[in-house]
Prior knowledge:
Blueprint: H1 2-25, H2 30-36, H3 42-65, H4 68-81, H5 83-101
Helix pairs in contact: 1-5, 3-4, 3-5, 4-5
Amino acid sequence: MNIVKxxxxxxxxxxxxxxxxxxxxxxxLATFVDLLGQRETWGFxxxxxxxxGLILFATMIYFVEGSLKVAALWLVVMFCxxxxxxxxxxxxxxxxxxxRLSPAAA
Length: 106
């Protein structure tokens, strides 16, 4: 389990490092807003795929946590911070996810 947390942690760190120049170059999100107006582009498709992934991950959180309130809260956080928020959820709750996915001991 620690190896999985290590992989998630390293991936999160790499993502943050790669995001810093983008955030510094466009802090007002002008290119993002422009992308929303260009619906026939791959950029928009990738964004919609990202949103679908967040909704699916929030659904998984609901099944793991058993609480719509908790899943909705994480969904809001994920909409604000994206996949780094999903990484934080996994780092905090990976043991709980594994327990939920493992078959019950007979």
